[in-house]
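check this one:
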Amino acid sequence: MRGYLRNSTGAQRSRRPARTDGVTIALAGEDYTGKAPCNSYTGTLSSGFITTEVGCPELDLEQRYYAALGSVDDATIVDGMLRLTGGGAVLEFAPV
């Protein structure tokens, strides 16, 4: 699934979502893997995730993505898209 990050917290809300076309997540039971703007990650719903550590120009966006991913406390399917929410952030992924 490819996705984008939309910050839904008050003053930090941007008018348009930050496009993260290269960001992916794949789910298999409790496990997940994916690609953030710079690095790959893997984890489980019960224990968090680990990531590679390659630098890139989009590192700020990646840090925001990981913070949002780490705060997820709800997952729903809305209009065919996976929506992960928590901590004031919304992560939406469209199937590929």
